[in-house]
């Protein structure tokens, strides 16, 4: 099975209907990630074949459970999940933030080469981000839940939610959340080609 076939089969299993142009952009993103990774160390996953499941499908598995227009991806790294959300949801406005200059250089260049006009990239720590109002604040392997909330609560819109992509069910992290934060849901995610637990934790203010 080619990379393109693996990607299309995975998208079908996730129930995501993307256009041929969007699928082409996902393939271009993979090629860029693989090319820049050799110099910039964007991800520990070195094989493009593994990137399909570990990065693309892993990120996109959360998409059906997220609703919003203004979305902030914290600690975006190589663009997971923010860049992938931007490709799959062109009607969303994605802000990607990372404190690593090399990673944000990649993100800016990828947005240009992929023609993504709905992506804005910031190179700074999220706690320094000017007060804004995001419908959804997401992250993947950024920090534990309490720290994630603490660093970003100043930019969450009224009625907005946090959507954290996690591995195993984060019992301890949930137990350590502050009293004014409630768990909206913990959704088990099934990622095609990935034999590992994945969960999407959605949080909101009480």
Automatic annotation (TrEMBL):
Q: Which reaction does it catalyse?
A: guanosine(527) in 16S rRNA + S-adenosyl-L-methionine = N(7)-methylguanosine(527) in 16S rRNA + S-adenosyl-L-homocysteine
List keywords of the entry alphabetically: Cytoplasm, Methyltransferase, rRNA processing, S-adenosyl-L-methionine, Transferase
A Gene Ontology molecular function term for this protein is: rRNA (guanine-N7-)-methyltransferase activity
By its UniProt entry, which SUPFAM superfamilies does this protein fall under? S-adenosyl-L-methionine-dependent methyltransferases
Signal peptide boundaries: none
The cellular location(s) given in this protein's UniProt record come to: Cytoplasm
Q: Which residues form a coiled coil?
A: none
- Main localisation: cytoplasm
GO CC terms, sorted: cytosol
Q: What is this protein's function per UniProt?
A: Specifically methylates the N7 position of guanine in position 527 of 16S rRNA.
Family matches, as HAMAP family: 16SrRNA_methyltr_G (MF_00074)
Protein name (database record): Ribosomal RNA small subunit methyltransferase G
Q: Which organism is it from?
A: Rivihabitans pingtungensis
